[in-house]
Amino acid sequence: AVSTLDSIVLFTNLGNMYVMKVLEFPASSGYGAPIQKILKFKDDERVIESCPLPAKGDPGPGSRAEGATVVLVSAAGTGSG
Fold first, then answer.
1. Per-residue buried b or exposed e for 52-81, using 16+ beta carbons within 10 Å of the residue's own CB
2. What gap in Å lies between CA 37 and CA 46, rounded to an integer?
3. d(Cα 56, Cα 49) in Å, to the nearest integer?
4. Where are the strands (E) in the chain, listed by range?
5. Distance of alpha carbon 14 from alpha carbon 24, whole angstroms
6. What is the C-alpha end-to-end distance of the chain, expressed in Å?
7. Are the C-beta atoms of residues 18 and 12 closer than 8 Å to each other?
8. In percent, how much of the chain has pLDDT > 90?
């Protein structure tokens, strides 16, 4: 569960990471719009994993300690910290 103040982190098959605020997701009463169009994905790019990113001041379950470093490494060996 997430709140409208939180963000969602999306990881794609091309090794890209996108962050989108929950509040920015378009309202929908049906199937909605594909996320690929909202975030302008490249051809054949698709989401392979996602995770919530709690708003500041809301540690949420499984959160990291303030000042902690998170390292992301792709299968190709490139990363970001």
1. bbbbeeeeeeeeeeeeeeeeeeeeeeeeee
2. 11
3. 22
4. 7-12, 17-21, 47-53, 72-73, 79-80
5. 23
6. 26
7. yes
8. 9
Question: How far, in Å, CA of 70 to CA of 63, rounded?
Answer: 11
Q: How confident is the model at residue 62 (pLDDT cuts 50, 70, 90)?
A: low
Taking residues 40-46, report their average pLDDT. Answer: 90
pLDDT band at 66 (very low <50, low <70, confident <90, very high): low
DSSP 8-state code for residue 63: P
Query: What 3-state class would DSSP assign to 23?
Result: helix
Kindly report the average pLDDT of the chain as a whole number: 77
Show the tokens assigned to 31.
């199937």
